[in-house]
Amino acid sequence: MATVCPVASLHQEANPSRLKVGSVKTLAESSNLTSIPSHYAFTTSASSDQAVHSDHDDSIPVIDFSLFSSSNPDQRRKVVSDLAKACQDWGFFMVINHGVPEGQMKAMVDMLMGFFDLTEEEKREFEGKHVLDGIRWGTSFNTSVDKVFFWRDYLKVRVHPKFHCPSKPEGFSEVLAEYAGVVRKLARGLLKGISESLGLEPGYIDEAMNMDSSLQRLTANLYPPCPQPKLAMGMPPHSDHGLLTILMQNGIGGLQVHHGGKWVKIDPIPNAFLVNTGDHLEIMSNGKYKSVLHRAVVNNKDTRISIILSNGPSLDTVVTPAEQLVDGESNRAMYIGMKYKDFLELHQSSVLDGKSGLERVKI
Ligand SMILES: O=C(O)CCC(=O)C(=O)O
Ligand SMILES: [Fe+2]
């Protein structure tokens, strides 16, 4: 995407592929760091594309999850229609009254902070190579293809259908297994509401996407303080590839969503989840619910951590638009079918660039 234009390509010495890649955490903690190395500097970054706060009359939708189990049919109908509007207008929404205990969310933040606090050597043990490896610790997005590096370290762990977890810090696997389970339940509940909101049977998405063996992956992003936050980028504009992404953070803002032609800052709401619709929901809904570009900016004061569970179809599912949403010429299918696994491999092998993954399956 044009908004990510590397400075480094103008400077031969700043070719990151020839550098040994360490974490940004270690770099940020090195003494006297007052400027960023040139291979982290973007010519066009978030600073030249100023973000705004959302208007009062068009703020990020809030969905009260408890209303899906209301015995009052009017309340249920209302929350399903709010969900439809949120998916159509924003592709992002906050979820409150989701039933995940506050202590469980906090335990995840503490565990992940503990993980990133391990030594570089300890973390290297978890450095994966392939997109489908169970555990992958790393930095930037894909350091073998990124031209300029992102100010971000990450840990990616596949937690379903097969559960993986780093062996450190102690107790991580119990906390993660429990958290992933409750979030999976929440995702399936939301997908039920989304099916209904599309005029499909409530269980349609669950069945068509084989959610009993859905691919669920944890991504924890660590954005340490950056001495020149206007030059660096935490994560460039991209959409998420799964069906639904469920995010929480440590109270420090940084996420921006492309909405109404502008970048809108999303302030964290304590104990709420931020949910967004992914590329495969766009394909399945035949473009009715579009995946939305978002990016993460960095700051020079506080370490930010975002903890994400992406909930996708099972790896072997060939995702196509729902038949009921396609009819002849006026509503023809807009996406070809592709196995989720193949989509992921294509996605990881190239630079993270807007919605380029989805472009490959658009008819
Ligand atoms: O850190 C954030 O707020 C966004 C991260 C993100 O978009 C992702 O990991 O896909
Ligand atoms: Fe994302």
TrEMBL record:
The keyword Membrane does not apply. The keyword Cytoplasm does not apply. Keywords: Iron, Metal-binding, Oxidoreductase. InterPro entries: DIOX_N, IPNS-like_FE2OG_OXY, IPNS-like_sf, Oxoglu/Fe-dep_dioxygenase_dom, Plant_2OG-oxidoreductases. GO terms for molecular function: metal ion binding; oxidoreductase activity. Gene3D superfamilies: B-lactam Antibiotic, Isopenicillin N Synthase, Chain. Residues 213-313 form the Fe2OG dioxygenase domain. Belongs to the iron/ascorbate-dependent oxidoreductase family. This is Fe2OG dioxygenase domain-containing protein. It comes from Eucalyptus grandis.
